[in-house]
Write a structure and sequence with these properties.
Layout lengths: L1 E6 L35 E4 L17 E2 L5 E3 H9 L5 E9 L6 E2 L2 E6 L2 E2 L8 E3 L10 E4 L12 E4 L2 E8 H9 L5 E4 L7
Parallel strand pairs: 2-5, 8-11
Antiparallel strand pairs: 1-12, 1-13, 3-4, 4-7, 5-6, 5-7, 9-10, 11-12
Helix pairs in contact: 1-2
């Protein structure tokens, strides 16, 4: 069984400051390819000040910051590797919290290597925007064909590269590691 990796809404870190310089290197973090040029590290990220009245913010540091540059906590990376995930390139990160003045260094920027065309398009309910079922397909119902996954435990979906797909073994390892702020959506139950 495969799942779409997500994050609990209550762990939504709307605190990433869009004006941070963390994406000033012109790198595409969602194409599943090994970077061909060096990445300047540590990548610096700044958080916005926490606003308790903003329901989209949390003072907690989540296991996963989804965004232009995906940021995974070291604890999450340990859990993924314990499950056998071996297709991640990681880069040092420093995250500044203006509320505490602290720089968090227990995160890595993560490039998930491998983009796999694993959707069963005949069974999925999808809109193919440009006539080619790659990169930007919108799914109302996604069906993963396990025969097309090539045994990958974690990969980007070629039909919609914003989706990171994980195997049941990965889900179980993350839960066993005590990480509870992630969700594992059944592909047929989530719109992408």
């Amino acid at each position: 069984m495969y799942y779409v990796l997500g994050r609990l809404y209550s762990a939504n870190p709307a605190r990433i400051d869009d004006k941070s310089s963390y994406d000033d290197q012109g790198i595409w973090w969602d194409d599943g390819q090994v970077f061909t040029r060096p990445i300047k590290t540590p990548i610096e990220v700044r958080l916005k000040p926490y606003e308790s009245s903003n329901p989209d913010m949390s003072p907690a540091m989540p296991s996963l910051f989804k965004g232009i540059v995906p940021l995974y906590s070291d604890a999450l990376l340990v859990a993924l590797r314990s499950a056998g995930v071996d297709n991640l390139d990681t880069y040092a990160v420093r995250i500044h919290d203006p509320d505490t003045g602290k720089w968090h260094t227990n995160y890595k920027a993560v490039n998930v290597i491998g983009m796999v065309s694993a959707a069963d398009m005949a069974k999925s309910v999808a809109t193919v925007h440009d006539g080619i079922p790659l990169i930007d397909v919108s799914f109302d119902r996604l069906v993963i064909d396990p025969k097309k996954t090539h045994g990958f435990l974690m990969f980007r979906l070629a039909e919609n590269n914003s989706a990171v797909i994980v195997h049941e073994r990965v889900k179980q390892a993350v839960i066993a590691a005590g990480i509870h702020d992630l969700e594992f959506f059944k592909p047929e139950n989530i719109a992408l």
